[in-house]
């Protein structure tokens, strides 16, 4: 296990970039939503994707889960798929989804125009067998493993199942991004996914000023959260699956400087992502 040093980013929580030329028609988030994101460190957008769009994504999910691929990472105990990664390079539906304007345009509003696709995955958390995600900040991995200088990446989720309080939702410490980057420990044993985790003493301290919330909602709900938000999720002992699509977009100016991890964990392609048309999932023209 490795221990990282505490990085000193007292004001490292995401703030909305000023002076980014964004066209009127690309303004997906209202000022209120942007303020909510800045204050809480996350934003929930109910019903961002329709039932038909979710069904299309779920069919693609079934195709990639069936593959024998190194990007399909299995649960330690049961061997069922926990996370399937590198999805936009494995299936055309995901190649379009990572350029979907309902994901890319809000991300550009928050983090600036020139973003690259850093990571594309589905965390499935299968009924009965889905194991926990320990308390962490995404930035620890992005910095320690990939050498991203600053906590500027955004994690954009789409619920592919109804996510309830019972089937392993994400838990957020609301506003915890204001602590900046905190000391973490590299945990390679608790689950099949090595993770830089926040120690219990720090979690206890954060809990004194930040309340816990669970991110729940119907399939099609979207979530956006920043790199320093402290989050985790419990095991799914319920009889219902919980699948969530996750796209991480990062500014080109904050790109990786290390290539220790496989490409499917942090993609090397530094092309700026360009949004497609809004109906790109159901009526693709390319
Ligand atoms: O899928 C989960 O429950 C946790 C995922 C997560 O922590 C992440 O995407 O950073």
Automatic annotation (TrEMBL):
Q: Which Gene3D superfamilies match?
A: q2cbj1_9rhob like domain
Q: Which cofactor does it need?
A: Fe(2+)
Q: InterPro entries in the record, alphabetically?
A: Phytyl_CoA_dOase-like
Q: Which Pfam families does the record match to this protein?
A: PhyH
Q: Which domain of life is it from?
A: Bacteria
UniProt xrefs under PANTHER family = ECTOINE DIOXYGENASE (PTHR20883:SF48), PHYTANOYL-COA DIOXYGENASE DOMAIN CONTAINING 1 (PTHR20883)
Q: What is this protein called?
A: Proline hydroxylase
| Record organism | Blastomonas fulva
**Taxonomic classification, please?**
Bacteria, Pseudomonadati, Pseudomonadota, Alphaproteobacteria, Sphingomonadales
């Amino acid at each position: 296990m490795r221990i990282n040093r505490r990085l000193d980013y007292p004001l490292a929580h995401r703030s909305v970039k000023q002076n980014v030329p964004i066209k009127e028609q690309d303004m997906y988030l209202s000022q209120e939503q942007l303020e909510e994101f800045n204050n809480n460190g996350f934003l929930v957008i109910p019903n961002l994707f329709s039932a038909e769009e979710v069904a299309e994504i779920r069919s693609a999910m079934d195709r990639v889960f069936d593959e024998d691929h190194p990007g399909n990472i299995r649960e330690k105990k049961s061997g069922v798929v926990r996370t399937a990664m590198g999805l936009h390079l494995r299936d055309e539906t995901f190649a379009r989804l990572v350029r979907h304007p309902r994901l890319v345009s809000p991300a550009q509003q928050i983090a600036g125009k020139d973003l690259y696709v850093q990571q594309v995955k589905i965390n499935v958390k299968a009924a009965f067998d889905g194991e926990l995600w320990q308390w962490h900040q995404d930035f620890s991995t992005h910095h320690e493993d990939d050498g991203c200088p600053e906590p500027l990446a955004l994690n954009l989720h789409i619920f592919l199942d109804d996510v309830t309080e019972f089937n392993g939702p994400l838990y957020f410490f609301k506003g915890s991004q204001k602590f900046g980057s905190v000391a973490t420990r590299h945990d390679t044993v608790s689950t099949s996914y090595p993770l830089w985790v926040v120690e219990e003493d720090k979690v206890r301290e954060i809990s004194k000023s930040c309340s816990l919330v669970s991110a729940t909602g119907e399939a099609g709900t979207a979530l956006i959260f920043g790199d320093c938000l402290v989050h985790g999720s419990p095991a799914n002992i319920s009889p219902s699956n919980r699948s969530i699509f996750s796209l991480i977009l990062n500014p080109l100016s904050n790109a990786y400087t290390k290539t220790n991890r496989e490409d499917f964990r942090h993609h090397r392609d530094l092309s700026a992502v360009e949004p497609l048309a809004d109906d790109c999932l159901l009526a693709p023209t390319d």
